[in-house]
Give the backbone structure.
Amino acid sequence: MTNGWIDIKNTDMMLIMGGNPAENHPCGFKWAIEAKRNRNAKMIVVDPRFTRTASTADLFLQIRAGADIAFLGGMINYAIANDRIAKDYLLNYTNAAFVVKEGFKLPEDGLYSGFDPAAHTYDKSTWNYEEGGDLTGKAVAPEAPHKPAPPPAPLKPGQAPPPPPALPPNVAHDLALQHPRCVFQLLKKQYSRYTPEMVERITGIPKDQFLKAADLFTSIRKNGDMKKAATIIYAVGWTQHTYGTQIIRTAAMLQLLMGNVGRSGGGVNALRGHSNIQGATDMAGIFDNLPGYLKVPTPADADLAAYLKRITPTPSKPGQWDSFNYWSNTPKFVTSLLKALYGDAATKQNNFAFDYLPKVDRNYSWTQIWDNMYRGSVKGIFAFGMNGVMIGPDTKKNIDALKKAEWLVVGEIYPDETSEFWRAPGTSTDEMKSIQTTVYRLPCAGFAEKDGSMTNSARWLQWKNAALPPPGDARLDQDIIAQIFLRVRDLYKKEGGKFPDPILNLTWPYTDPQHPALADIAKEINGKALADLTDPATQQVTKTGQQLPGFAWLKDDGTTSCGNWIYCGSWTEAGAQIQRRGTEDPSGLGIYPNWAWSWPANRRVLYNRASCDLDGKPWDPQRRQVWWSEAAQKWVGNDVPDFKADSHPKDHLGPFIMNPEGVGRLFVPLGGLADGPFPEHYEPFESPIKNPLHPNQSNNPVVKKLTTPADKFGTPEQGFTVVCTTYRLTEQYHYWTKNNPMNVQLIPEAFVEIPVELADDLGIRGAEKIKVTSARGTYIAKAFVTRRIKPMTIDGKKVYQIGLPIHQGFRGIAEDADRNARTPANLLSPTVIDPNAFTPEYKGFLVKVEKA
Amino acid sequence: MSREPYLLPNGRVLRYSYRERLVHWLAGVSYVYLLLTGLAFWSPWLFWIAVVLGGATISRELHPWFGLAFVIAVVMMDRMWGKQMKETPADKEWWAAVPHYVRNEDEQMPSADRFNPGQKLLFWGFFWNGLLLLLTGLILWFPQHIPWSLRFLRYLAVIVHPVCALLTIGLFIIHVYMGTVIERGAFGSVIRGDVSRAWANRHHHTWYQQLLRDSEARK
Amino acid sequence: MSQVSNEIRRISGHAGSVPGEGFSRDYDVCKLIDTTTCIGCKACEVACLEWNGYSFSETTFDNSYQTMPETSWNYWNLIKFNEHEREDGTMQLLMRKDQCMHCEEPGCLAACPADGAIVQYANGIVDFQQDHCIGCGYCITGCPFNIPKFSPTARKVFKCTLCNDRVTQGLEPACIKSCPTGCLHFGSKTDMKELAENRAAQLREHSGFANAGVYDPAGVGGTHVIYVLHDATNPEAYGGLPKNPTIPVTVRLWKTPLKWLGNLAIIGGLVGVFAHYLRFGPKIVEEDEKDKQGVRQ
């Protein structure tokens, strides 16, 4: 989240879309209820079903699963057309005024400029700003019609490839927002195609309903009023699409247009789905990041300097503006990380052991790994608290992949479907006997048996204590990993091997190496000084070995070590900030500055400088977060300013300090995103219709299909005419609560929610067994005949939507008692992924429905 | 034929056979239990009765079973006496003269058969109220099995059961009063079974005369 | 179940006066349920089970999110779900927490014949005392909300106790504590009623629910569990909440007029026959009298 859970209570207007917080975040949702109760805040819910969240909404719109960009694009169009935008904010805090290079083309035909159909990628060099100065008021020559750029000339022998395109340091800009290639005009043009009629065609939302929602949401900016704030709240209803990242982008753009980012009660707020998933992403539990969202090195990075040059942005902005460009400190973050990893083995001489870091040469995302396992190149897999058979798209393919693996290690608290994959329903005894995979089942500790910190959606790191020790032979995760690592290291020590240095030289500074204390690791992550350091501004000293007070102390010369720069400040010499439990909230904004610790630097609302006007005065005096103090000559406030504290407002330092531009990006230049600087509506990979905007390019052009025989896709012509979405319920938590009698009592059996009308068509009665089939598999469960999903008209066609909770599988209390058909929901889902975040398209694929 | 069924060697008349007396006491004892436990549930002031009869919970458990026993007895009585209890034209005269009966001026009463109309009233009173008590009693025995949609049955039962019970209590008071205090010899008739010829002649003249005729016929 | 610290106002099946009659040191408690902010998460269902020590049982899917069709002897608190379409065609998913309403004039207590089996405390809580319960089930008939439930194993009736054991210790009921959205409130009747009315007014003014109101039915003298409803004119839509609940008329007839009449009749009957005997004496058959002096034939 840019903001936080409690901050939601400060909002005036909520758009809840791609998420169902009442059901999946009931405790967090109380803050939405508080906003309604105490501020008469309005709530708009847009969802394929009338959910329990919708039951508390002021306005509910039923949308076709996957049509979100069309809706949000329509909202952008409406906001601009009806002047419901934050003008000063737009002009000064976003790149609306930046002029884009000639040669850039909008995707009226579904493709941006630079598309290579063979490789399914874009040459993004035209997705860039124009170099230049202030073009305000200057006449512009009429645009020549767009001609695709000629392919680059082949390299002559010995000729170095041209340097990759870079952002210009001085960006041409038009502060009147009139230049036809300024971002604002391009944005306007882009979404001018997203008329209310087009929105209705694509989303199925009747025009009058859409206009009602657009009017309501943008009403906070009527007549230029800047006092009110609106928030957009979402979850995996947005991420689980082949353009999921772009859906979120559209929301971010809408929020920038309306000046809601950085505001109390505003922001773009992702509701994370597990208690520590935010922590997992912060610590880079993904292949393409290093801790703190550092980009991973690639084989093309010859050395540390080349790597740092590639990943460290330089400012790119109008000349008279200032940009903090905080990522310019990347070398400090990287070097400190390398020191944390390799300690004394990382020296100036050896590039701080840069060679020890793996160079990521291709896509190693989840779906790709299991595809590789299916193809036979991945021999074995550790599955720690990760029920791969259940969570991955196309369950059958994943089970078949495991059958081909040589070994599987499962760390779990219950026998789960992954550890029992060999006896998945439908596996004959003969086949079971033929499976050669060795399965190791390691009993692990449950959440109440572990201490450590969890980072929530609001970026708060909160330490928890273990309530009781793990039972029997169960071990703590860190112990298992430590003990495996130490044995592997020993083997390398004894037997040598190919390049054992990174393993042999990995620091392991724990008091008890076999049982590393998470407190020790937390301190390591915060980082410490490796030499005596003095802050020139305050003359404060951090001595060698002391915990660092914050990331401003990080150095690129090897005198600091830090496991994750954004967590620097979480465990200082003053103690474990993440263990604090101060319940004071003097501002009443739900900031609670002394409760736990949020990254970065305990700032609760990101980009909070944007909560003030150009003079540093809060847009809404009732909700003062930070402000410029003339007397103190710095930014002060109820929240920690997410800004350079002593930067005078007249210096026009941009609030979006992590962007090289210093401002929010309506237009994302160059390689920021794989599939376009602006979001464009694309159809889900399996769709009932052709994309009304450009039928010849229905889907996201950058999405690549996987191509094993197991990767099957269905079309309406094959009879797959029903749109299917998958989701979770309050009463169950993914796949493990089916082992808990309490949850099983509340939701005892698998069901599929189908519209009354569809049930009538097929002669299906409530609680009757039905089967749902996609091109990949069949799911059997009881029908939940409901009025909460209505039939829709999509581009003139009658389309039904159905939905199914994912919680039941083939191992659990009800499953073991034969009270379920034992079919996992992901038997149905397709193996296509978002090209930026690699999330599979679990929502909005095609199925057919029949009686079982 | 050697045996005289009704005119006994000791000069008395057999009023009720062994079987009849057993059934009567089955009805009587079960009714008394029902009455006592019923009164306990009827009035908080009498709740202690259920407590002393083995505990309130056990009384609630057993009350319906005794009810069944009572119903069985009533059914058996109907099989034994149903025909004899039927209303006859002579009954109207008897009722017209009932003030004499109350004032113990029995010589003024028209002849009664084996069962006088008062007894017939008692019989049918217990029969029909007993039936209603059975039906409402079943509902009250298993109220948790009557679904919400049929709750009107419980509402009916809750009022009809005590009303019928009260009616039977009225009949019972009169029956016991008459059978023990008023009609000397009546109690013996239902214990040892026999009454004096004079008693039979006075109170059930028609029946007694028929017995004599039958006896003559048998000679 | 504890009677220790609560002042008692009414006792079922009880002869004589009640200690707490006419005197109260406790304020009236009240549970307020705001159905407009309930998200049907069932935390309250689980909290109730866990506090009262009941185990989880097997249930069946029946075309609804509802855990089971009705509350049960070991499941005192149930969210009832209803997919409801308003007149203007908009959808609602009405979710109402169903449990004992703790009526000011409890039908269960009125109908109960067992001394002390049902107790109403001065603070309004109506509590079953299972050690006095005789398992007759009259309370089932007396209740207009279909709440008391019979346990086939214990052969007694059970229902929500408004967490009397917690309330006597100054704690809020378990369900209140567990509610994540704060849709459940607990406090004095006066305070809760005020909160409810304010919320209903807010709904009418700001949320387009012209018929929003408070459910506190006068037919049972008001209840110590009250609801805020989006549409107070249609409580039936909320999982069958009765529009105008009262103690069933036959129960009232039985307990008051019939009780008087019947008692009078019985006593009258007994007095009558005694008077008759005094006046008229027994029936005497002279021949028998003579025989008594003579020899039996």
Remarks:
- The mean pLDDT of chain C is 92.
- The longest strand of chain C covers residues 78-85.
